[in-house]
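Exercise 7.
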Amino acid sequence: MVILAWSEWLNRRWSRTLVGDNEGATEAVVVLGYRNPRATANLINRWRVRAGIRSLTDDGRHDTRLIFSGGTTTIGGASEARLMADYARSVLEFTGTVVLEEESTTTWENVTNVIPLLEDADRIKIVSQPAHALKAREYLRRQRPDLAKRLVRADDYRPGEWLIVKPLLALYGLWRLRRLRAEERRTTPG
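Solution. The predicted structure, written as tokens, is:
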């Protein structure tokens, strides 16, 4: 029980790190792909697509777009971005604006390659598992501090979601975030 509570707390904390409360009329929600060697979106990518869609501000006052980011993981296969977009459209019946970034093979490249797609966005959300999204937010802060000031919280953390595997995700997240400096894991954009 203590381990579940700890992992829940840690994932919640990560989801709220390096984000502000920017306002504005345009919003970009970036969904990061995860290793997808098959011809259809895998379990992780399907969850990320659902989290991306629920992260969109649907109040009629925002011009929103959903950006799927991820390259091809197999020779001749479809990109992760394309597989996620296909899942959003065909299974979830998403009819909003979709933009694809299909060249990235690492998180650093995801961030680098979506920057041109974020230039005009007042609000930027990055969707993935909380530790991975935090890593991407930090990469955006390193590459483009001006855009990082526009980061707001995505809806990629919900209490109880992924509950049984959350301790493993927390441990994996700690391992993946170990290279970020302590202040990068705690601060919010200024």
